[in-house]
Write a structure and sequence with these properties.
- By secondary structure, the protein is an alpha/beta fold.
- The chain contains three helices and eight strands.
- A five-stranded mixed sheet has the order 2-8-7-4-5, with no helix packed on it. Strands 1-3-6 form a three-stranded mixed sheet, with no helix packed on it.
- The longest helix is centred in the first third of the chain and has 28 residues.
- The relative contact order is 0.16.
- The N terminus is likely disordered.
C-alpha cells in the first residue's frame, strides 16, 4: 500500500511539473516579438489562421485573409495603397458549416461606429448578418469551412478603415484595421 501511495505521489508531482512547464511557456508567449509572425501581403501571401499575426507589414492591394474555426482572422492590420483597387480574398480554413461558424469580412468606412454597426448586423439574419448600411465599403459573402469569397473595392482616401466579421458574437474578436496609405 505504501508503494502505491509513492507511485501516486510521483505521478501527481510529475503531472504538476509538466503542467507548470506548459504554463511557463504560455507566460513567455506575451514576451515574444510578434513582428517575426507578421504576414506580408505581397501577392496573395497569408499566414496560417491557426497562428494569428498582428499585421501584414508590406503594402499590397492583393490580399488573402484567413479565418478559422477558432473565430480568428490571421491578420489584424493590413496596408493598402489609397486610390487603387484592392482585391481581397477571405478563406475559411476551418471545417465547420457557415450556419455554425460562418465568417465574412466587412470593410467599414473610416470613422464608422463599429459597435452600432454590429448591433444592426445581429438583426440581419435574413441577409447573412449584413445590414443595410451606408457605413459599408465592401463585404464578402458569409462562408463556411473550406470556402472562400473574393471582393474588389477601392479606398479613395488615405486613412484607417475597420473590418469585422458580422456573424453573431464574432465582431468582438474577429476585427482589424486596413491602413490606406
Amino acid at each position: 500500500m505504501k508503494k502505491l501511495f509513492n507511485i501516486g505521489s510521483i505521478a501527481l508531482l510529475t503531472s504538476l511539473v509538466i503542467a507548470s512547464c506548459g504554463n511557463a511557456d504560455q507566460g513567455k508567449s506575451s514576451e515574444v516579438d510578434h513582428s517575426a509572425h507578421t504576414t506580408e501581403a505581397t501577392a496573395e501571401t497569408s499566414a496560417p489562421a491557426s497562428t494569428p499575426s498582428t499585421t501584414a507589414a508590406a503594402t499590397s492591394n492583393t490580399i488573402t485573409v484567413e479565418s478559422n474555426d477558432q473565430m480568428q482572422f490571421n491578420v489584424s492590420e493590413l496596408h493598402v495603397k489609397a486610390g487603387e483597387p484592392v482585391s481581397l480574398t477571405l478563406k475559411h480554413v476551418g471545417k465547420m458549416d457557415k450556419k455554425v461558424m460562418g465568417h465574412n469580412l466587412i470593410v467599414l468606412k473610416s470613422g464608422a461606429d463599429v459597435a452600432k454597426f454590429t448591433e444592426e448586423a445581429l438583426k440581419a439574419q435574413a441577409t447573412d448578418y449584413i445590414p443595410q448600411s451606408s457605413d459599408i465599403v465592401a463585404h464578402t459573402d458569409l462562408i463556411g469551412g473550406g470556402e472562400e469569397s473574393k471582393i474588389e473595392f477601392t479606398l479613395d482616401k488615405a486613412g484607417t478603415y475597420d473590418y469585422i466579421c458580422s456573424f453573431p458574437g464574432h465582431a468582438g474578436i474577429m476585427k482589424g484595421k486596413i491602413i490606406a496609405e
